[in-house]
Amino acid sequence: MAAEQGGGMGRRSHPYIEREGSLKRVQEEFRPVVDALHARVAEVFGPDRLHSAYLYGSVPRGTARPGRSDLDVLLVLHAQPTEADRADAERVGAELDAGFGQIDGVGTLLFSETVLMSELERYDLGWFVACLCTPLIGPDLAQRLPRYRPTSLLARETNGDLADVLPRWRELVGRAATDTERRRLARIFARRLVRTGLTLVMPRAGLFTSDLTESAEVFARYYPARGDEMRKAAQAAGNPTADPSVLLSYTEDLGPWLASEYIAVHGRKTPRPY
């Protein structure tokens, strides 16, 4: 661990992590998409199934790129999501993706209110809702959650499972048969690696950011020997390549090193029963 660490920024008090998005930040060209999402989710799920709905990602941050950014959605249900719930969510997402050229796909997460409010998820999904999600429909669960600081506990519970994810990544790479599939995986892997790199150093830096370029630079202050790799991963997250050697570097080099370092610094994420 010490061999690859660089100089720190010095001790500093950890500020609270503020919620990063807002409906006011949604760019004009994406407002019709958000309006349509609001209407369709409310219509399809209704108050009997839906507790609340949220946006996350580049659209509520106001950094989305027309025709290239996806629309990220969290649906919170009163009960555990069923296959019918997931099918309805996929249908709504497909309708929006087909109807609006501004977005490149819709990604929807479904969780029950009980899971999101559980003590087990307090420093993972709870933090995600409170800090990374923007309320769209229904009561805001963030009102029932604490304020969060960039601590080692938060680091462990958000990204301390990279070692468990890597075997699945290798399977996906082995099954990828087209450049389109390989580019999609490169984007997913690069995003995860950069975000994990940022949370690895987050307690020392005393900050959190969702900006991948900034994340790579913060990481590089503490691990300069791996800095260029992380910068390239941040670039690949926005402009992914189909080069198999890049995927191999993620699954066999940067990924395993980062997973090992993460466990050494913060420990493993608490296992989930689901």
UniProtKB/TrEMBL annotation:
UniProt entry keywords in alphabetical sequence: Transferase
Signal peptide: none
Gene Ontology molecular function terms on file: nucleotidyltransferase activity
Domain of life: Bacteria
Residue span(s) of domain Polymerase nucleotidyl transferase: 52-83
Keyword Transferase: yes
InterPro entries, sorted: NT_sf (IPR043519), Polymerase_NTP_transf_dom (IPR002934)
Pfam short name (any one): NTP_transf_2
SUPFAM superfamilies: Nucleotidyltransferase
The protein's name in its UniProt record: Putative nucleotidyltransferase
Natural source organism: Streptomyces candidus
